[in-house]
Specification:
30% of the residues lie in helices and 25% in strands. Strand 6, helix 4 and strand 7 form a beta-alpha-beta unit. The protein has a 5-stranded mixed beta barrel, surrounded by 4 helices. The protein is an alpha/beta fold and 269 residues long. It has a single domain, classed as Nucleoside phosphorylase domain (Rossmann fold), CATH 3.40.50.1580. Helix 4 crosses helix 7. It is globular, with a radius of gyration of 17 Å.
Length: 269
C-alpha cells in the first residue's frame, strides 16, 4: 500500500500543484466542479492504482484547481463498496490526498432520510455515523506511517468545521440539519422494515458511502466535514418506489445549496 500511495502521489506531483483541501463529490453532486477554476482534469484511469468509478452519475475525474482562492483537489465521482471494490480501494484516493498535503477533507453524499424532521431537498451535516458495512478500510496490516492501529472515532467529524458550516448556513438562509449517518452496503435501497430499524438504532439518514473515507481520514489525522443531500424519505407509509433517476434528480435540485455552503466554508478557512 505504501508504494502504491507513493506512486500515485508522485504521478500527481508532476502537475506541480499542491492542494490545500480535498473534496469528494457524491451521487448527482458533480456540479460543484463548475465552480472550480480547473488547472488540470485527470481521468482516474491515468492515475496509478486508482480505481475507476462504474456508477453512471459519477464522472470519474480528479480535478486540480482553485475554489474561493484556495487550492483544491476534487474527486468528480467516488467509489463504493457495492461496486465490488475493497474498502482499501475505495479509500485509496484519500490516502493519496493526504500524501499530497491536504489539510482537511470535505465529503458529500446523497442519502435517504430516516428522521421525519428531515425532508427531501434539505441538507444535513454529519456529526456522527453508524457503520454497518461488513468490512473496515483499516482491516489488515497497519502502517504506522499512515496512522495508529486503533484510531479513536469518538469525534470523527470536526467540530470546528461543523460549527462553521452551521454558521454559514444561517448567514445564507439555508436550512441545514445535523445528525447521524448510517452506512449500508447497498446497492439496493432499504425495505420499510429496514428503514424503521435504522431509525431505531439512532440513524437520521442512510447512505452507501462517506464512512469509509471518513475513517481513513481520521486514521491519517485529517479533519473531516461531511454533508448529505436528502433525496428521499424512508419514513413515509406506504413507502414510495424510488429509482436512481429520482435520486439523481432530487440531488441535482438541492445541489446549489450544498455547493454554496461548501464554497462559503472553504472561503472562511
Amino acid at each position: 500500500m505504501i508504494n502504491e500511495i507513493k506512486e500515485a502521489a508522485d504521478y500527481l506531483r508532476q502537475y506541480g500543484f499542491g492542494p490545500t483541501y480535498g473534496i469528494i463529490l457524491g451521487t448527482g453532486l458533480g456540479a460543484l466542479a463548475k465552480e472550480i477554476q480547473v488547472a488540470h482534469a485527470i481521468p482516474y484511469e491515468n492515475i496509478p492504482h486508482f480505481p475507476v468509478s462504474t456508477v453512471e452519475s459519477h464522472r470519474g475525474r480528479l480535478l486540480l484547481g482553485s475554489l474561493e482562492g484556495k487550492k483544491v483537489m476534487v474527486m468528480q465521482g467516488r467509489f463504493h463498496y457495492y461496486e465490488g471494490y475493497t474498502l482499501q480501494q475505495v479509500t485509496f484516493p484519500v490516502r493519496v490526498m493526504a500524501a499530497l498535503g491536504i489539510r482537511s477533507l470535505f465529503i458529500s453524499n446523497a442519502c435517504g432520510a430516516l428522521n421525519p424532521d428531515i425532508k427531501k431537498g434539505e441538507l444535513m451535516v454529519l456529526n456522527d455515523h453508524i457503520n454497518l458495512l461488513p468490512d473496515n478500510p483499516l482491516r489488515g496490516r497497519n502502517y504506522l506511517e499512515l496512522g495508529p492501529r486503533f484510531p479513536d472515532m469518538g469525534h470523527a467529524y470536526d467540530r470546528g468545521l461543523i460549527d462553521l458550516a452551521m454558521e454559514k448556513s444561517k448567514d445564507l438562509g439555508i436550512k441545514v440539519h445535523q445528525g447521524v449517518y448510517v452506512v449500508v452496503a447497498g446497492p439496493n435501497l432499504e425495505t420499510s422494515a429496514e428503514y424503521r430499524y435504522l431509525r431505531i438504532i439512532g440513524g437520521d439518514v442512510v447512505g452507501m458511502s462517506t464512512v469509509p473515507e471518513a475513517i481513513v481520514a481520521v486514521h491519517m489525522g485529517l479533519p473531516v466535514m461531511a454533508i448529505s443531500v436528502i433525496t428521499d424519505e424512508g419514513y413515509l407509509h406506504p413507502l414510495p418506489v424510488v429509482s436512481v433517476d429520482d435520486v439523481i434528480s432530487a440531488a441535482s435540485q438541492a445541489e446549489p445549496y450544498m455547493t454554496t455552503l461548501i464554497k462559503r466554508v472553504i472561503a472562511a478557512l
